[in-house]
TrEMBL record:
This is Synaptonemal complex central element protein 3. It holds the Pfam family Synaptonemal_3. InterPro entries: Synaptonemal_3. One of its GO terms (biological process) is synaptonemal complex assembly. It comes from Takifugu flavidus (sansaifugu). It comes from the Eukaryota.
Length: 91
């Protein structure tokens, strides 16, 4: 009997350790992905601050996107269009 309970205890501990290892691996992977995203964000900020032409190019690209979206959706976008109600997103 003592051998049987020891075996069960050992199996339970092994299963728990396996589960904890999997959880730890998932957390490490998530942390690595977040670290990579933060690194790219920092890179983008540095690039934008050091290259002022990029900001104007991005603004032109965003304006072109909105014009194209308005053309595809059939709702013409004008410069004097009303401001959307608070809490809504124009896109």
């Amino acid at each position: 009997m003592a051998g049987s309970s020891f075996t069960e205890l050992h199996q339970n501990v092994s299963a728990d350790m396996s589960e904890l290892t999997k959880d730890l691996e998932r957390m490490v992977e998530y942390t690595e992905k977040m670290s990579l995203q933060l690194t790219w964000m920092a890179h983008d900020i540095v690039v934008m601050r050091t290259n002022p032409e990029l900001v104007s190019s991005m603004q032109k690209l965003e304006d072109a996107y909105h014009r194209c979206k308005a053309a595809v959706c059939g709702a013409p976008k004008t410069d004097n269009s009303p401001v959307p109600p608070a809490g809504t997103h124009p896109d």
